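Hello forum,

I keep getting stuck at the same step: I have a sequence, I want structure tokens, and every attempt I make locally crashes halfway through. Rather than fight my setup again tonight, could one of you with a working pipeline run this one for me? It's a single chain of 159 residues.
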Amino acid sequence: MKYQRLTKEQLEELHQEFINFLATQSITANEWEELKVNKPEVAEEELDVFSDLVWQGVLSKANYLEHFSKDQIHLFYLGGTEMYLIAIKVNNDEIDITTTEGYNWLREHLMNDQVVFYNATKEYGEDPAMDIFKLIQKGANITNGELYKYFEKLMKKEE
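Reply #2:
Ran it on my machine without issues. Output:
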């Protein structure tokens, strides 16, 4: 398996897609039930193949990622050959931007000396989808890029 198996909840959400996947493998509902009982290792392999297909589809459509920690926000734009990062760091131990209060403080104090902006560009490795997947494993979430676009405009105004 290239990525990771979907959780039980994710598989339940994708129930119909999984049925369609099994159909493309010429596996009927009865055969699937039989596989789970008599050949669980084959059933596990089918789940792994399906999970990888789902992840590949999701990763290929992702354009933006966000990762929040206590004192930093990492915003990624996933370009064709490289990813672009806008990072916001709060240099105040009393502020936790993962809380509503901390995030509101950041919004009100963006130009404060305790708030530092960084940006960087990084080329993908041999497998761009795996680079993106690793960021998701570390806690990044796929988004519509609203925050990235906001801070991108803000940083251009400051130049």
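Helices lie at 8-13, 15-24, 29-38, 40-61, 100-108, 128-137, 146-158. If your local run keeps crashing, start a new thread with the error log.
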